[in-house]
Specification:
alpha/beta, Glutaredoxin, five-stranded mixed β-sheet
Length: 208
């Protein structure tokens, strides 16, 4: 049996594939919690979002919050990375039941090959989600994001499912701002991770 590749420090924008093993690290959440990645207790869903207060990010994260108990019961720990400072993030994420990591220097983004592109907002499949997100933010009276957010507005999302040994079981690099794993896909991947003969890395359905 051949050894799995261990992921070294990576140049920017180099994508990683399922089967790669990420180096162990301990991240610090904006609330001070220490978060091991990989987690010896189970699977980690490491997801990359944009800036503090991003309406489209919030729309997606609210779907995670609504079904967080199901995700946790499936053995998955949610860890969400933003390219904003902890100070800027705290007022926006105080009510989220999972770890939020501040990465204003985009070191994790570079290591995991998460990109920036104008197509994040210009892709036609993103438009209706942007409208929904802004409407939902206005309805909830969410805190307004900065006019000039740290790291800019053109980030693309990315998702990684990592097992307790650090092996990347599945990865998704979004093509637009709302192109990420929905909850059903997270749960499917978690089930596949513990089901012999099932490939967790099967393609995820693209959100409509």
């Amino acid at each position: 049996m051949s050894a799995m590749p261990v992921m070294p420090a990576r140049p920017p924008s180099r994508r990683i594939a399922p089967g790669t093993v990420v180096a162990a690290r301990e991240l610090v959440a904006v609330g001070g919690e220490r978060v091991p990645v990989p987690d010896p207790g189970g699977l980690v869903h490491l997801q990359f979002r944009r800036f503090a207060g991003c309406p489209v990010c919030n729309l997606h994260l609210r779907s995670i919050v609504r079904r967080h108990a199901e995700i946790t019961a499936a053995g998955v720990r949610e860890v969400v990375v933003f390219h904003s400072s902890a100070e800027e993030l705290r007022p926006h994420v105080a009510d989220l039941p999972f770890a939020v990591i501040a990465d204003p220097g985009k070191r994790l983004y570079a290591e995991f090959g998460v990109e920036v592109s104008k197509r994040s907002l210009l892709h036609p499949r993103a438009w209706r989600h942007i409208v929904r997100a802004v409407a939902a933010a206005l309805l909830r009276r969410d805190r307004t994001p900065s006019l000039r957010p740290e790291g800019g507005r053109l980030g693309l999302p990315a998702d990684f499912l990592i097992d307790r040994d650090g092996r990347v079981l599945a990865a998704k690099y979004g093509e637009h701002v709302y192109d990420q794993w929905p909850v059903e896909e997270i749960l499917r991947l978690a089930r596949a991770a513990v089901s012999p003969g099932t490939s967790p890395a099967a393609p995820a359905p693209d959100p409509a």
